[in-house]
Amino acid sequence: MLSDFIMRAALAGVGTAIAAGFLGSFVVWRRMAYFGDATAHAAVLGVAIALGFQVSILGSVGVVAVLMAVGLWALTGRGFAADTVLGVLSHGALALGLLAVALVPSARVDLDTYLFGDVLTVSKTDLAVIWGGAAVVVGVLAWRWSRMLTATVSPDLAYAAGIDPRREQLILTLLLAGVVAVSIKVVGALLITALLIIPAAAARNLSRTPEAMAVIAVLCGIIAALGGVGLSFTLNTQAGPSIVCTAAALFVLSLLRRRA
Amino acid sequence: MSLLTAQNIHVRHGAATVLHNVSFAIQKGEIVTIVGPNGSGKSTLLRTLIGALQPTSGQVVRKAGLKIGYVPQKLHVDATMPMTVRRFLDLPTRVTDVEAEAALTRTGVAGIGTRPLDGLSGGQFQRVLLARAILSSPDILMLDEATQGLDQPGSAAFYQLIEDLRDSLGCAVLMVSHELHVVMSASDRVICLNGHVCCEGTPEVVSAAPEYRQLFGTGTKGALALYRHDHDHGHDHDHPHCHHEDAH
């Protein structure tokens, strides 16, 4: 018999996997992994601020993630965002967040939840946030899919067709911040990028078109989320690592069926 | 009115000014080729005309609703993105299977729709890029060094295809090339660029201009004649056509 909290955990995992699966394909195609890391790490700072000032975690994480994402977007426009700069920002934000949390005495107990995820404690409100966020992410991606895909294949092809690739990149960046904000409770800040990248990487080996890859990435993400929640429940392990390990196992399996 | 006009544009890359005071216009049905040595700003000019670069002064004016079919110099689809030829033709606007196959047939690569993009030869890839560009029924086709990596008969056949497309679609064509000997006779007008417009006119006028000879030497005139000879007796076209009347 499935108890309520497992059902909620499973639903939270599936909702996160849907958003991360669709968006993750773009993260992989555009090589935005480090970008995702930096945004997710900034979220830790958001958590510290929320705990320190007793404000909404979702709001605080959302605002900090958006600021980081838009800042990075502005830097890439100036040709700045080389690996090194992203590395400095990403790890700098993480360290600053950890430092800030350490200065808030009451926060230490909660930190693990946001670093590694705690899918077994999601509330109904969390669920609403996750599924609402997933709906927005999927809706925006579906709406702008062709424009984003064209801009990803070649910015010049996009310009010639009257599409502004910088705008599409900004929207993707904002969606990334959104996914970070809603999935932090499920997988934790340290492993959000993994949930974006690994299902998409597994899907790449099984697909011939971008759409097929995105859909298969979602399916892989759902399997990983459900498997991870089960693992987390049975072994009493942290949710984030459990989900990501399951996803990584799927990736290894996908190598067996690799297509060109 | 011209399809596309550049008025006294200046374009900078960082600290360097790549284009100085370039003015340019192209009319319906015209084939215009931009030639110039490496680093002369040819690609920069094309990218400014499509809107990828902003001029620091001057302006680019497009006819309202102008549709551009752009064939880039290189297109690298990241290996992480699976992409078939057929799917690529749907970017950015979906087309029917019939339209897609017709475009591939038109550019001489019928039946390769199911192939992944990264498995194509250089020549096939260029023709797929061209097929995608004509699917939007463009008012103007823009090609940036479209025949890079093709051998000379391959280039000649490609330019012949461009000319046929111009005739059947009624679009203007703007090309950038350094393959002077092949390009010159296929153009109605040639613009010789070296940061600024050195000279401009019919292929005959430009190849005789002192500015052009200073940049490219006098050898190309011989090559031009040689190419025309080849072209008259070409083996890679299956129908007669009146090419020279167009070019003059």
Number of helices of chain B: 10
**Global geometry of chain B:** globular
What's the arrangement of strands in the largest beta sheet of chain B?
Answer: 5-6-7-3-8-9
> How much helical structure, as a percent, in the residues of chain B?
25-40%
Tell me about the biggest sheet of chain B?
A: 6 strands, mixed
Secondary structural class of chain A: mainly alpha
- Give helix % range of chain A: over 70%
The CATH class of chain A is Mainly Alpha
The succession of helices and strands of chain B, N to C, reads: EEEHEEHHHEHEHEEHHHH
Number of beta strands of chain B: 9
Largest sheet of chain A: none
Proportion of residues in β-strands of chain B: 15-25%
Task: Tell me about this structure.
The complex is a heterodimer of chains A (260) and B (248). By secondary structure, chain A is mainly alpha-helical. Helices cover 82% and strands 0% of the residues of chain A. The model of chain A has no long low-confidence stretch (mean pLDDT 89). In chain B, α3 (97-106) packs across α4. In chain B, strands 5-6-7-3-8-9 form a six-stranded mixed β-sheet, sandwiched between helices. Chain B is of the alpha/beta class and 248 residues long. Mean pLDDT of chain B is 83; it is low at 220-248. In chain B, α5 links the parallel β6 (140-144) and β7 (172-177). The A-B interface holds A 28-31, 146-147, 149-150, 152-163, 200-201, 204, 207-213, 259-260 and B 47, 50-52, 68-70, 72, 75, 77-78, 80-84, 87-88, 90-94, 116, 118-119, 136, 142.
Summarize this structure briefly.
Chain A is mainly α and 260 residues long.
Attribute tags:
heterodimer, A: 260 residues, mainly alpha, ABC transporter involved in vitamin B12 uptake, BtuC, 82% helix, 0% strand, globular, B: 248 residues, alpha/beta, 6-stranded mixed sheet, 3-stranded antiparallel sheet, 10 helices, 9 strands, 37% helix
